[in-house]
Each structure stands twice: as structure tokens, then as C-alpha cells.
Amino acid sequence: QARRETLLYLDGVSKTFDGFKAINGLSLVVARGEMRAIIGPNGAGKTTMMDIITGKTRPDKGDVYFKGDIDLTQHDEADIASMGIGRKFQKPTVFDSHTIEDNLRLAMAGSRSVFATLFHRKSSAEAATIEEILTTTRLGDKRQMLAADLSHGQKQWLEIGMLLAQDPELLLVDEPVAGMTDAETEETALLLKDIARTRSVVVVEHDMHFVRALGVKVTCLHEGSVLAEGTLDAVSADPRVVEVYLGR
Ligand code: ADP
Q1: How is residue 87 annotated by DSSP?
Q2: CA of 50, closest atom in ligand 1
Q3: What is the DSSP letter of 146?
Q4: Would you say 80 and 72 are in contact if contact means Cβ atoms under 8 Å apart?
Q5: pLDDT tens digit sequence for 116-139
Q6: CATH classification at residue 94
Q7: Among 67, 77, 198, 247, which residue carries the largest CB count within 10 Å?
Q8: What ipTM does the predicted assembly reach?
Q9: Range of the domain at 81
């Protein structure tokens, strides 16, 4: 697949830490509007891959391109975030003492001050975007609640909403359902599928029930490169995948 036609393109990426190859010739292509699940045992390089995409870690070699021609290895974290790559870490970081709606307004405002954001009049475009995000994140009827009063799962959804407020083309999500109830886990799969109708999403996840619910192409990493790629059924039946999961 040609680099120019893809949203995210990694080719031959390597990263060594103190002589240890955390990423070793990794290639990954994510299309516009695609959701991809990344699996792999601990130490496979999933976090390092996300760090490389978001500019937190610079690879030693290899190509990392966004939207065909943006060389991500030449940009820092703040630049990359502003170019349309949002990253959700495992631990939610929301403003506990603000309402759901104000959290979204603050996220949308980015660098504008808290005071200016909460006291300026919302434009109708802003209001419409917030409504859409409240619907997507299943938080519409909780808009006036303080973030502190949300369940763990709802806080994760709010944080996803805060990333959507910055209108990313690519959303990177790290283990979104860790610690969630079964009902929240199921709802999160639907929520991410809703998001993936208009954006690309890369999800790192250990919970195979959740990956199955996503129903998307799966990439299994091992020792810093792609071990297998395809449907979850095909990947989980691959003897090499079985071996790395059982043999650790
Ligand atoms: P995963 O997220 O799949 O569990 P990681 O990307 O966190 O894997 O780690 C891959 C390997 O790289 C691990 O063996 C880890 O110890 C090593 N590693 C990651 N970051 C660093 C670092 N900053 N310094 C040294 N080793 C690192």
C-alpha cells in the first residue's frame, strides 16, 4: 500500500534502549477511517510504538508518516498533537471539580485560560460539537455532573470526549477497558465504533473479549515487530501467536 494513500504509515522502525531492541523493524499501515486493534504480550513494544507515533520517543531508524507526507520523526509531541493525533493514556486525567460539559469546553479551548473559557459565550458551532461529543460518549444526561462523581468507565469516556474536542483524525487508545465493568466494556466497543465512522482509531488492548467485540483487523506485536496480522480468529489461531502467549 502506497504511503501517500494511508493515514498512518510505519516502515522499518527500530528503537533500541541501552542495547535492547524494544522496536525492531516494525511496519504498520492504518488507513483513513480504519480502526485497528494492537495486541501482544507484555514487553512486545506496544507502548514504545505509541510513543514513537506521538513523538514522545524518536526512533533510531525507519519511516513514520502521517497523512501521507508528514514525517512524524521530525516533530515533537506538542506539534503532533496539534496536527490531529490524540492519545488516550490508561489513567484518565479529567478535571474532577468541573462538570462534564465544562471539561469538554476546557478541552476544546486548549490553551485558552480556564476563566476565559468558562465565562465566554459558546458559539453555536461549539455548542453543536459539544452536543455531538456528549452523545458519542454516552454522557448527555450527565452533563451537569461533576467529573469526580462519574464511574471509572464514564471517566474514561469523558477523557475520550476531551480528545474528540480537539478533533483528531487519528485517535490512539491505550487499554481503554481496564478496570471497567462488563457492561461498560461492551458499551466502549460500541462507542469506539461510533468514533471510527469518521476517524481512524488504534486501540492497544489485552482484553480479548473486547477485541472480539470491536470486530476489526488485529495486529499482534512480539519483540518489537509484527508477528501476525488479520482477523482475531486468524491471528489467535496462528501457532506463532499461541506460542508467544503461552510461552511467556
Ligand atoms: P508493551 O507496551 O508491549 O508491554 P513496551 O513498549 O512498554 O512494551 O516495552 C518494550 C520493551 O522495551 C520492554 O522490554 C521494556 O522494558 C523496554 N523499554 C521500553 N521503554 C524503555 C526505556 N525508556 N528504557 C529502557 N527500556 C525500555
Answers
A1: E
A2: 6
A3: B
A4: yes
A5: 666 666 778 888 999 999 999 999
A6: 3.40.50.300
A7: 67
A8: 0.95
A9: 3-246
